[in-house]
Design a protein that fits this description.
Oligomer: single chain
Strand content: under 5%
Largest sheet: none
Helix content: over 70%
Radius of gyration: 20 Å
Order of helices and strands: HHHHHHHHH
Distance between the termini: 52 Å
Number of helices: 9
Shape: flat
């Protein structure tokens, strides 16, 4: 039995996620819909419980699609010819994804229906009192963007190398969010120093190139600036 480090386990998990995104059309659709829903939620007045439900159903649909992809790969590996049982297994797995998607649609409808009836850009003003919502939504959007960009690229692994640096993107996103929340020059200096230390560690370990960490940092900063300037 081969034992792997914790970082290896996370890396393998992200490799599976990126492989599914790269090869499965439905996974691309799920991520696009998730991005649209998370970004669109900025225009609505949703509470903490509703936000938790939103992240839960999105994660559940993606998890079911991953399981469905794994089942299809295993069936294709052990069944080279047409088999009724293999067909049934694939159909049942696909049905699981379908049920998860239906559940997500119902939950989304219940969350947004009241605001959709009285859609107004004045709802954005209500979000500025819920900066935690902006922070978590920004982080969710960034993860989707990084996974999509990693899937397009061919170099490195999800947690080690490749364009762009996810660690740099997340660290600079968090640093920029903290700046917007505090508006304090001392705190801003400290959090960006921490972000730079993350970048320095990626460069020193030769996990990423300078271009990869710079692009990652710019993505994190720009996303935070866009979200907080437009909605806070």
């Amino acid at each position: 039995m081969q034992f792997h480090s914790l970082s290896d386990s996370f890396n393998y998990a992200f490799e599976g996620l990126i492989h599914a995104f790269r090869t499965q059309r439905n996974m691309k659709i799920h991520f696009i819909v998730a991005f649209i829903v998370l970004f669109g939620s900025l225009f609505f007045e949703i509470g903490k419980i509703q936000l938790v439900l939103l992240f839960t159903v999105i994660s559940f649909v993606i998890a079911m699609e991953l399981i469905n992809t794994a089942i299809e790969v295993v069936i294709d590996m052990i069944s080279q010819q047409y088999s009724l049982r293999a067909k049934i297994a694939k159909n049942v797995a696909a049905a699981g994804v379908f049920m998860a998607a239906i559940n997500a649609v119902i939950v989304g409808y219940l969350i947004f229906i009241d605001d959709l009836r009285s859609l107004s850009f004045s709802l954005i003003n209500d979000i500025q009192q819920e900066t935690a919502h902006l922070s978590f939504i920004s982080l969710g959007l960034l993860v989707i963007i990084i996974i999509a960009l990693k899937a397009v690229g061919e170099s490195g692994t999800p947690l080690q190398g490749g364009m762009p640096s996810g660690h740099s993107a997340i660290s600079f996103l968090i640093a920029t969010i903290i700046v917007f929340l505090t508006m304090d020059i001392v705190i801003a200096s400290l959090v960006f120093l921490l972000a730079l230390l993350v970048v320095q560690s990626r460069l020193q370990s030769r996990t990423h190139t300078m271009l990869e960490v710079v692009i990652g940092a710019l993505i994190g900063i720009l996303l935070a600036v866009v979200i907080f300037k437009l909605f806070a």
